[in-house]
Amino acid sequence: MSEEMIHHTRDGFPLAVQTGGPAEAEEDIPTLLLLPGQSNSHHWWDRVRGGFDEAFRTVTFDYRGTGNSRGKLGAWTTEGFADDAAEVLEHLGIRSMAVFGTSMGGRVAQMLAANHPERVSALVLGCTSPGGKHAHERKRETRQWLARGTREEQQAKLHELFYTPDWPGRPEESTLLGDPTMSPREQVGHRRASDRHDAWEALPSITAPTLVLHGTEDLMVPAENAELITQRIPDARMRLYPGGRHGFFEEFAEQVVPDTLEFLADVDPSGS
C-alpha cells in the first residue's frame, strides 16, 4: 500500500481508501479491487497484496466501522458495502476493474458484480457463500466453539479455523482474525451484514468472467458453497485447494496468486 486518502460518500461517511501498484504506473495498467472479510480492514490483504502489485494498480478501502473508516453506525449490508465500493471507484476515475473478494468480501463482490456490472470486468470469489436458505452454513459446534472463552481463546480458535497446523505463524501475528479497533456494536453490524446476505437470485445475472476459489477443509464457510456459486454464475470456473482452511488464500498464496493472475490475464481484466 503506497497511498491512503479519505473519500466522503454521498451520505457523508468517510471511507479510507488505499492504492498500490507499480512505482511508475502506466495509464493502461489494469486495476484490481481487493475486498476483505467480515470485521476486517484493508490489512486483511497485507501478506497477499504484494503478489498483485507488479501487475495491477491495487485498490482497497476500509469498510464502514473498520480501520480509518469510522462514523455513525447504520443498518450495514453487503449491498451497501458494494455501493461504497462503486463510489470509491468512481472517485478514483476507474471505469472498470477486476475484483477479488474473500469471505464477506466475496459476498460484497457478488453484489458489486450484480448491481454495478459496468464496474466489474472480472470476478474472483474466495471462501465465500451465496447466503440465504440455499447456502451451506458452518456446523453448530463450530458456532458454539467460537462463542466461548476469552478474546485470547477466541483468537486461538479462529487461528485454527483459518490456518492448517503447518502454518508457522501465531494468532497475534495474523491480520485475518479481526480488526481489534472495532467496537462491539461495529462488530455486530458487520456480522448482521454478512448473515443477512442473500445473492441467490442475483448470481445468474452476473456477466463478468468468474473464478471461484475455496479450501476443501474450510469449517467457517463450507466448501460446498463454492460449487453452488459456480453453478449459479454463468460459465464460472472453480478451483479447490486440498487441505485449505478459511485463510487458504494467504497460507497457499504461492498457489493462489499465480492461479488468480493466470485467470485474470486470460479474461483481460482491463475490460477492453
Helical residue percent? 25-40%
From the spread of the alpha carbons, the general shape counts as globular
Quantity of strands, as a count: 8
How many alpha or pi helices?
Answer: 8
CATH topology value: Rossmann fold
The oligomeric state of the chains shown is single chain
Show the helix and strand layout.
Elements: E1 3-8, E2 14-20, E3 31-35, E4 57-61, H1 78-92, E5 97-102, H2 104-115, E6 120-126, H3 140-147, H4 151-162, H5 184-195, E7 210-215, H6 224-232, E8 237-241, H7 248-251, H8 253-267
Parallel strand pairs: 3-4, 3-5, 5-6, 6-7, 7-8
Antiparallel strand pairs: 1-2, 2-4
Helix pairs in contact: 1-2
Q: Could you describe the 3D structure shown?
A:
Helix 6 links the parallel strand 7 (210-215) and strand 8 (237-241). This protein has helices spanning 78-92, 104-115, 140-147, 151-162, 184-195, 224-232, 248-251, 253-267, and strands at 3-8, 14-20, 31-35, 57-61, 97-102, 120-126, 210-215, 237-241. The chain has one domain: Rossmann fold. Helices cover 32% and strands 17% of the residues. The longest helix has 15 residues, at 78-92. Helix 1 (78-92) crosses helix 2 (104-115). The chain has 272 residues and is an alpha/beta fold. The mean pLDDT is 94. It has an 8-stranded mixed beta sheet with strand order 1-2-4-3-5-6-7-8, sandwiched between helices.
